[in-house]
Specification:
The chain is α/β, with parallel strands linked by helices. Helices cover 32% and strands 18% of the residues. It is built from 10 helices and 9 strands. Strand 2, helix 2 and strand 3 form a beta-alpha-beta unit. It comes from beta proteobacterium KB13.
């Protein structure tokens, strides 16, 4: 009997109702190429194959690959390895990436797809806490580095929550199914690398205000010119506010 391996962060989805909800959320197209990360024993894979012939898999666990090999059809390929170890070129053939991500590297995997411009949509199961930060509103305590870095590149939507009992073994936390849709609203305004630097400085110390976190970057006159209160915390600002700050800093460097 195959058991989940803790070192891979495996929690296998066993709830058929949730699998149906996931498949219903995905807008399948004959022109899209799909990549599933960490399919495990293939519960979701089997349903995906009913809706597309353009599906490939990345699986790190050799034991899972043996099981998957007996389930996949002739058009599906399995690539063995850690998704973080694949080159940018590998992902160039895919438009949609989906999967049940290990909690301990979920955000790292999500960030991996920021520079892969041809990947338009990400569908992932993640810890609810991560999902809440991805969809956080300006001014909320969940508004974070994650919210603003991903928001520069993707529009985030939390589709639904998933109870622990839907997995085997059951995690200790609730999960969420999320959809990230790439947009290109800001890429012609500023460089992501410059924006990223301002975001990291702004959120450097969660309890401190912008005047303290951006000390050495902006002075009080700069805040006045920007029409942004120096007493605000980073969570009080929108992506557009951070873009305005980034442009100002670059122009006045």
């Amino acid at each position: 009997m195959i058991k989940a391996k803790k070192k891979f962060g495996q929690n296998f989805l066993i709830d058929n109702q949730i699998i149906k909800l996931i498949v219903d959320e995905i807008k399948f197209s004959e022109t899209n190429k799909y990549l599933e990360i960490g399919p495990g024993m293939g519960a979701l894979t089997s349903e995906l194959q009913k809706n597309t012939k353009n599906l490939d898999l990345i699986e790190i666990d050799p034991d899972m690959i043996k099981i998957l090999s007996a389930k996949i059809n002739s058009t599906t390929q399995i690539f063995e390895g850690d998704v973080l170890g694949f080159s940018d070129n590998f992902f160039e053939g895919y438009n949609v990436v989906l999967g049940n991500l290990p909690y301990y590297i979920a955000t790292e995997i999500i960030f991996r797809f920021i520079p892969i411009n041809n990947v338009d949509i990400l569908y992932f199961m993640v810890q609810k806490e991560v999902a809440d930060r991805l969809v956080a509103k300006t001014g909320s305590k969940e508004n974070s580095i994650l919210t603003n870095l991903l928001g520069f590149n993707f529009r985030a939507e939390k589709c639904f929550d998933i109870k622990p009992e839907s997995f085997d073994p059951s995690p200790k936390v609730t999960s969420s199914f999320i959809k990230l849709t790439r947009h290109r609203d800001y890429i012609n305004e500023i460089r992501y690398v410059d924006y990223k630097r301002i975001i990291k400085e702004s959120f450097k110390f969660k309890r401190k205000n912008l005047k303290n976190n951006l000390k050495g970057v902006l002075n009080l006159n700069d805040f006045e010119n920007l029409e942004i209160l120096p007493t605000n915390r980073a969570e009080d600002l929108s992506i557009e506010d951070f873009i305005k700050i980034t442009k100002y800093v670059i122009t006045n460097a």
